[in-house]
Design a protein that fits this description.
The complex is a heterodimer of chains A (about 525) and B (about 90). Chain A is mostly helical. Chain A contains 24 helices and three strands. Chain A has a domain of about 350 residues. In chain A, about 65% of the residues lie in helices and about 0% in strands. The relative contact order of chain A is 0.16. With about 90 residues, chain B is mainly beta. In chain B, about 5% of the residues lie in helices and about 45% in strands. Chain B has one helix and six strands. Chain B has a six-stranded mixed sheet with strand order 1-5-6-4-3-2, with no helix packed on it. The chains are: A mainly alpha (about 525), B mainly beta (about 90). Chains A and B meet through helix 10 and helix 19 of A and helix 1, strand 1, strand 2, strand 3 and strand 4 of B.
Chain lengths: ~525, ~90
C-alpha cells in the first residue's frame, strides 16, 4: 500500500512516506508480552466453549466462575504492581455501556414477565389459531415482529428478553421448531439493533465515525434490507422443513382453550414502549411506561391480582406480619423456605442477576486486554499487514470488528473499543463516515447475537430458563442451548455476508470525496 | 438532500480507484508524509499533496487537484488548508 511507495506517483520522494510515531505504552505490563493481557478473556472463552458447547451446561453461574478464575490467574502474569491490574478491572466494570445492557435486561425482564402473567402469550396463541397462522409461518412472522419491536425500542437485548418470554412459548405450543424460533427472535433483534436510530449501537457507530445518526440509518438501510429479505425467505422455508416438538395434544388443547383474546390488550403496552422510544424518551422511561400500563391492564381486566405482581411472603413471628396479613401483597408463610418476595416483577428481575454479574466481569477482563496492549497489538498488526488496499481494508474492518465482538461479548462495549481503529483504517483510504459506521455496526449488531457467549444469546437463554416454571407443558428439554441456535441466526450471518460482498464488489462504498457525513447530533 | 434520497444513495458498485478531476478542490485525509509532501489514498487512487508535512498526517485537508493519470490512478495536488481532524482518537 503506502510504505513501499515504489513510484506510482512518479514525482517527488514518495518512497520516504511515513507516519509519525504514535507509540503509546500499555498501562499494565505482563510477563510474556502484551499478548498475555488477553489471558483472562481467552481463558473465559475456552471455559465457555467447554462448558456450554462440549458439556452442554448452560449455567450462567458456571461462566462467572470461569471468568473469575481467568482474572485471578491472569494477575500472576502481571509485571510490577498488581494494584494497576485490579484498578483496571474496576475501570472496565464501571463503564456505562455495561450498565446500560444490565438496565435493559432488567427493565425488559420485568415488562415481559408482566405481559406473560397477563395472558399475552395466550392472546398470541389465540390470534395465531384464529388467523390460521401455522407452525411453518410462525418463525418468519416472529422475525418480522421482533424486527419492528426492536427498531421501535432500540434495544435488541430488551426485545430478545421480551420475545423469548412471549413469542417463544406461543410458537413452541403451536408446533414451530424451537431452535428456529430462537434464531428468528435473535435475527429480529439484530435488524432493529442495527437500524434503529435510538439503538445504542447505532449511536456509538455514528459518533465514533463522526457521522450524523439520520444519515447513518438511511445509508445502512440497503445492507439491512437485503439481508432481511433473504432471512425472511429463509425462515419461511426452514419453518416448513423443520418440525416442532411433540407437545401432548391434551396439553395443547387445554392451553388453547384457556387462551383468550383479552391478553392481546398488551399489544397496547408494547406500542406504548415503542411510541415513547420513538418520541425520544430514554429506554428506562419508555419501558417503565410499558410496565405501568401492563400493571393497569392486568389489574383492570382481572388478568392478575396485585399479589401476582408483587407478594411479600413473611414468617408469622415477624413484628407486623400477622396484623397486616389482610393486605393483598402480604402472605404469612410457615415454611422457612417459602419466605421471600415473589411475583411478576421479582421473577422478571431474578433471571438476569447472575448474567449482570457475569457481564460486568467480562467487561473488566476486556479492559485488562485493552490496557495491557493485546487489543492494540492485534489491531495494529491487522492494519499493517492486512489492510493493503481498499478492498482488503474493508475486509479487515469487517474481520476486526467481528473478532472484537467475539471477545467482548457486550456488543456496544465492543463497538466503543473497536470504533477508533475502524476510523483509522477507513480514513486512511478516505472512506466516508457512513460507510465506516455501517461496516462497524453491521458486524457489531450481527455477532452480538450469534456467538453462544454473546450478550444477546445469553440474555435470551436466561429468559428461557424461567419458562418451565410458567407453563406446565413446557419442560427443560424443550429449551434451546446457545450453541444450537448459532446456524439459525439468519439475519446475523447474512448481514456479515452482505458486508463481505460489499467490500469485494464496492457495493454501497462511498468516499469522502463522494459525500461527507453531516455533523454528529450527539445524544 | 431529502430524507428519501438519502435512502437511495449508494445503491451502486463504487470503483476501487476513483478518478479525480484536475482543477477540482477536494477534502481528503492525508495518510503519510515525507516531510514536505503528503500522500492520500482515495480507495486505491493515490494523490500526492504538495506542501503537506507531518502536521497534516491523519488530518483532513483541502487539496486542489493539479494533475491526474487515469491509467495509474495517481495524481498530484496542492495543499490549500487543513479543514478537519481525524475521528480516530486512539
Amino acid at each position: 500500500m503506502s510504505d513501499t511507495g515504489n513510484g506510482s506517483a512518479d514525482d517527488g520522494p514518495t518512497d520516504q512516506f511515513t507516519q509519525p510515531d504514535r507509540d503509546r505504552g500499555p498501562t499494565v505490563e505482563f510477563y510474556g508480552g502484551r499478548g498475555m493481557s488477553a489471558f483472562p478473556i481467552a481463558f473465559f472463552i475456552v471455559w465457555a466453549i467447554v462448558q456450554t458447547a462440549l458439556w452442554r451446561i448452560g449455567d450462567t453461574g458456571g461462566l462467572i466462575v470461569g471468568i473469575l478464575i481467568g482474572l485471578i490467574v491472569g494477575m500472576f502474569f502481571v509485571r510490577g504492581n498488581w494494584q494497576s491490574y485490579a484498578n483496571t478491572i474496576f475501570e472496565g466494570m464501571t463503564q456505562p455501556v455495561a450498565v446500560t445492557a444490565i438496565v435493559a435486561w432488567i427493565w425488559a425482564g420485568m415488562f415481559a414477565q408482566l405481559l406473560q402473567d397477563g395472558g399475552f402469550v395466550g392472546g398470541l396463541v389465540w390470534l395465531a389459531d384464529t388467523a390460521g397462522i401455522g407452525a411453518a409461518l410462525f418463525p418468519a412472522i416472529t422475525f418480522v415482529l421482533a424486527a419492528v419491536f426492536t427498531t421501535g425500542i432500540g434495544t435488541g437485548y430488551g426485545a430478545t428478553v421480551a420475545f423469548v418470554g412471549l413469542f417463544f412459548p406461543a410458537g413452541v405450543l403451536l408446533g414451530a421448531n424451537p431452535v428456529l424460533l430462537f434464531g428468528a427472535i435473535l435475527s429480529g433483534a439484530i435488524f432493529g439493533d442495527n437500524l434503529a436510530p435510538v439503538s445504542d449501537t447505532t449511536i456509538v457507530s455514528a459518533v465514533t465515525q463522526d457521522a450524523d445518526i439520520g444519515g447513518v440509518v438511511a445509508s445502512r438501510f440497503k445492507y439491512v434490507i437485503v439481508a432481511a429479505v433473504i432471512a425472511f425467505v429463509g425462515y419461511v422455508a426452514a419453518g416448513s422443513a423443520m418440525s416442532g416438538l411433540e407437545i401432548s395434544a391434551e396439553a395443547q388443547a387445554i392451553f388453547l382453550e384457556s387462551s383468550e383474546a383479552i391478553g392481546l390488550v398488551h399489544v397496547i403496552s408494547m406500542l406504548a414502549v415503542i411510541g415513547a422510544a420513538i418520541a425520544g424518551r430514554h429506554i428506562v422511561e419508555a419501558i417503565s411506561w410499558g410496565i405501568v400500563l401492563a400493571v393497569v391492564f392486568n389489574l383492570a381486566f382481572g388478568l392478575t391480582t396485585l399479589g401476582d405482581i408483587v407478594m411479600f411472603n413473611a414468617p408469622p413471628d415477624a413484628p407486623l406480619s400477622e396484623p397486616l396479613a389482610s393486605l393483598p401483597i402480604l402472605t404469612v408463610v410457615e415454611e422457612p423456605s417459602a419466605i421471600g418476595v415473589t411475583g411478576s416483577l421479582m421473577t422478571g428481575v431474578a433471571g438476569f442477576l447472575e448474567l449482570s454479574i457475569l457481564v460486568l466481569l467480562i467487561i473488566g477482563a476486556a479492559q485488562i486486554m485493552i490496557r495491557g496492549g493485546a487489543f492494540e497489538a492485534l489491531l495494529e498488526w491487522s492494519i499493517d499487514n492486512l489492510a493493503t488496499n481498499v478492498r482488503n481494508a474493508e475486509l479487515t474492518m469487517v474481520g476486526s470488528a467481528a473478532l472484537i465482538n467475539a471477545i467482548i461479548t457486550i456488543n456496544t462495549a465492543a463497538e466503543v473499543a473497536i470504533g477508533p481503529y475502524i476510523s483509522k483504517i477507513g480514513e486512511r483510504f478516505n472512506l466516508n463516515g457512513y460507510r465506516r459506521a455501517n461496516i462497524l455496526d453491521g458486524q457489531t449488531a450481527a455477532l452480538g447475537y450469534i456467538f453462544p457467549w454473546s450478550g444477546g444469546v445469553l440474555a435470551g437463554y436466561s429468559a428461557m430458563q424461567e419458562l418451565p416454571g410458567n407453563y406446565e407443558w413446557l419442560d427443560q428439554s424443550m429449551l434451546v442451548t446457545p450453541i444450537d441456535v448459532v446456524p439459525f441466526v439468519f439475519q446475523g450471518w447474512l448481514l456479515v455476508a452482505v458486508f463481505v460482498v460489499a467490500a469485494l464488489t464496492g457495493f454501497g462504498r462511498e468516499y469522502v470525496i463522494d459525500r461527507q457525513s453531516e455533523e454528529v447530533a450527539r445524544v | 438532500m431529502s430524507l428519501f434520497s438519502k435512502y437511495l444513495k449508494g445503491w451502486r458498485l463504487r470503483a476501487n480507484r476513483p478518478t479525480l478531476e484536475p482543477g477540482s478542490e477536494i477534502d481528503v485525509f492525508v495518510a503519510e508524509t515525507n516531510g514536505t509532501s503528503g500522500r492520500a489514498y482515495i480507495g486505491d487512487t493515490e494523490l500526492i499533496v504538495n506542501g503537506a508535512g507531518p502536521e497534516t498526517v491523519e488530518k483532513q485537508v483541502r487539496v486542489r487537484v493539479t494533475d491526474f493519470d487515469e491509467t495509474t490512478a495517481t495524481g498530484q495536488g496542492e495543499l490549500l488548508e487543513v479543514v478537519g481532524e481525524s475521528s480516530y482518537s486512539g
